[in-house]
Amino acid sequence: MNGQDFTPTSEEHLAEVVAHAVAAGQPLELIGRGSKRGFGRSMQTAGQLDLSGFSGIRMYEPDELVMSAGPATPLAEIETALAAENQELAFEPPHMGHLQASAVTDGSIGGVFACNLAGPRRFRAGSARDHLLGFRAVSGRGEIFKSGGRVVKNVTGYDLCKLMCGSFGTLAAMTEVTFKVLPRAEKVWTVLAFGLSAEQAVRAMAEAAGSPHDVSGLCHLPHDAAARSSVDFVSGAGASVTAIRVEGPGPSVTHRVAALKAMLGSAAGIEELHTHRSVAFWREVRDISPLLDGATVTGDPLWRLSVAPMDGARTMTGVLDSLPGRGLMDWAGGQLWLALEPGAEDGGVAAVRNAMDGGHATLIRGAADLRARIPVFQPQPAPLAALTRRIKNGFDPRGVMNPGRMVEGV
After folding, report:
1. What is the reported pTM?
2. Which of 10, 147, 264, 407 could form a disulfide with 160 if both were Cys (CB 3.0 to 4.6 A apart)?
3. What is the signed CA dihedral for 244, 121, 58, 154, rounded to 10 degrees?
């Protein structure tokens, strides 16, 4: 275990590798496809535990709306298989490789669950953890274990799926994940409102969210972000764009879009995107493309904030009034993305967190020295931090799995 890298291809081999690491006290960096290596605190490890041997779709039953796959299976492979059956991952996970300027642009399904990622449909469909039915894994003790099953009603015992999602590989190395899938909508349309201020947009999105029109996407792009869209109706607006997505059977979508346009009234210019443009637009929002350009480099700070939706406009404006950068609001204002320009002291951590009144802020991307220097994740209250340490100790008492990736010393 002297700086070695390992690529096990079976659970038994993986358990042996982890057991040796435990005995030698040598920490390992867990890697699926490597697209998220810059997400989280910088780590110092003795070697790499490459999980690429655990790849491929192992079970897919479209009629039962369930799939099992190795955690290193490319997300694109999962999505292609689902699309062939007119199905999808309802929580709309983002593709994050391009955010890290990684050579690997397509992440893995295991990384999606390990980081608990979800896209614009999160406020309606839930996060990744709400769709994980079961998994198999090897703990930091070198023990093979499993949790959950193929359907929710068969799940017994502790709900470790919820615990594993968002653990960033610090508790166990997954070898298989089983998750729910859902049918794709027949029609996807989007109502666009042009020229709203951030405050007006939050109010409009709140009204749409509280309406009976069953919306599935609510976001606001300021002028500079909208101008970077590849969708002509958005980039050519010459103004901010507030978007409201409606999905479902054709007649229902047509009716709901007309009702939403009437609800918005003449407060702003109104346009609508039909399915092809809608899908392209929400893919951009999912992957944060309107905040990025060819000049963006790995070291530029990128923050994700979760706040009360009605606080979204005030929080985003508060940060961007003090630091140069671009932002957008998703989840009706509940999720903010802020791409800051280089040069902000400590990546703008003080300005970002001081602008918030509750919620949490996560540094999604930043230079390695910055990620080693500041709390990448929102600091936890003392009781929660103590619980986090006890959980880590229960699964990985010797700290061999991604030590310090989330919290220093854990």
Report:
1. 0.93
2. 147
3. -130
